[in-house]
Amino acid sequence: MIHDRYALPLTTRSERAAAHYIDGVDRMLAALHGADAAFEAAIAEDPDFALAHLGRARVHQLNMEGAQARAKAADARRLAAATSPRERQHIEIIASVIEGQGKKAMTAAEQHLSEYPRDAQILSLLLGAFGLYAFSGRSDHDAARLTICERYTGDYGDDWWFLTYLGWSKTEAGELVSGRAVTERGYALKPENAGAAHAVAHALFEQGDAAEGRSFLSAWLPANDRTSFLQGHLAWHLALIAIEEGDADSALEIYEQHIKPANRPYPPLNIYTDTASLLWRLSVAGKTGLDAHWKDVAAYGDGYFPRAGAHFADVHHALVAATTNNDALEARLAEMAARDADGKLAPGPAAIGLGRGIAAFAAGDHDNAVRILAPLMPELVRIGGSHAQRELWEDTFIVACLRAGQGRQATGLISERLHRRPSRRDLAWSQEAARQ
Length: 436
Known about the structure:
Radius of gyration: 22 Å
Strand content: under 5%
Distance between the termini: 71 Å
Helix content: 55-70%
Number of strands: 2
Order of helices and strands: EEHHHHHHHHHHHHHHHHHHHHHHHH
Strand order of the largest sheet: 1-2
Number of helices: 24
């Protein structure tokens, strides 16, 4: 019997197919390019290897290649009858994700892990800023990730992938010191792991260590050039540090060199949300002359996210549309409202309200932006993503308060952020708010 890296049996008679499959899984877990080729090589060695077909389907899904993803998932399901119970459940869970049945997949994944805790791919579905917990609409998804990681700590030990996500989950749940320590243990085991580099970047961000964050990313990115589909997102983290330090010109330079949509080999959801959010942050910071970049991002979004569906894309669509085309924003908000009425908008009405608040801010109606956004700040967590990603809407609310002469409305939020970590911008905003 052939086993994977987590000692789980694989239904294939080909050692070469298994080796390619294991390589593909590790590349997925480490956010490295090449998983597609590895899974295709596994299929070439053993065309009946169901899990290899499913792995290829998952890569198609991440790249927004929906038809191909569903076709390969169907191949995996067809071949599943000859596999083990563990593999059949594994296939059904990931196929459900590919088909957009997140709630079903989340429940099934939790049950599956109680039987097969070392099925790392299934655990990985629940974790991360774009995982099933984060995009469930739950307000406790940070805690949920940490709870399930801690439940299976004994099953993974010092596995490089698990330590990365245990550490990241601790960091996002507010356990910054232990989160950073665990993350750095995982990083040391496999420094080329882009997921680990990402987790380290988050730990440094949450601790307000801009200097070390800039030093770390400035070294890691060129050393690992073209290896990872997180490369653009890690450059986005570097640009955030520049904005925090008041250097919008450097942030725009990073955007133009490493993040803007043209010919980037990264998942479309990463590209769209990173580009839209960074341009918005630059605009809020006072940077002008961004019209051409906004048009590029709008065109990219029209290609990959033409209608409401992926709510994290939808809330970023509001940033783009409010800047370039208010008619498109109204159409998207109406589509989101229809999904909410059908019970398909995971964050609920809060996601629609964020769009309304963004539109008011973009129109210069800061009083209205404050009125709309103030009650949504406690609900912001429901859209998912990471703290670093969600801070965009907090920043917008704070600046709206200051521009409306209502700075004292933002003092509680600013104080909470400063309590969590040092920040030059938050300190300046706190002082400005105190003067109003």
